[in-house]
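pinned: reference chain
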Amino acid sequence: MLSVIIPTLQAETTLPHTLDNLAPAGIVDEIIVADGGSTDRTAEIAERSGAKPISAARGRGPQLAAGAAAATGDWFLFLHADTVLSPGWETEVSDFMHSPEAQNRAAVFTFALDDHSPSAVRLARAVAWRTRVLGLPYGDQGLLISRDLYETLGGYRPIPLFEDVDLVQRVGKNRLVQLGTPAVTSAVRYRRDGYVKRSLRNLSCLALYFLGVPPRTLEKLYR
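pinned: its C-alpha cells
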C-alpha cells in the first residue's frame, strides 16, 4: 500500500491541484492531509476529494510525523500541498517500489517551478546540483520511502524548519535516488519575494542550521 501524506496550512488555493493529480493514480491507497490549523476550506477540500484530514500541531515536522503515524501503508510518499507531480509519476514510483534495493533506499522527484523564466530555470539547475552532489533535496521534491526505513531512521522530528534536510541526512546521499519525474511547485513565493532574495535567505538559514543554530530560532528568521 502507498500512503500519500500532505501537510497543509491555509492551502485551499493549491491543494485541489495537488489532489486532482493524485486521484487517477491506481497505486495510491490513501491520502492523509495533516492540517496545522487552517481556517479556510482546506479540510473541506480534503474530505471532498476522499482524503483523510487529521489535525496536527502546526509546523511541517510535527504535521508530517502525525501524518505518518496515521497512515496505514507500507510505503509513504510525502508531498507538499503546493506541489503537483507530472504525468507518468505513478509508473516511476511503482518501478522504484518494486526494485530489489528499494526497501533500503528513498527517492525524491526532480524540482521544477510553474514558471519558465530564466530565474526559475537557473534555480531548478541549482537544486538539481544540490540534490545530486550534496544529497540535500528539500521537501518540495517530495520523499518516497518505505515504512520500514522511515521507522528505522526515526521518522520526521517535530522541528519547525529543515525537517526535510534532517531526515534526508539520516537517509544518506548514497541511499537517495533522484527520479526523473518533475515535481512542479508553485512559484508564487519566489515571484513575491524575488528569486535572488528568497534563495539567499534559504541558503543563509541552511548555513546557520549546519552551524548548529536551533530550528526554532531559524524559524523566526525565516518567517
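why pinned: The chain has one domain: 2-191. The mean pLDDT is 94.
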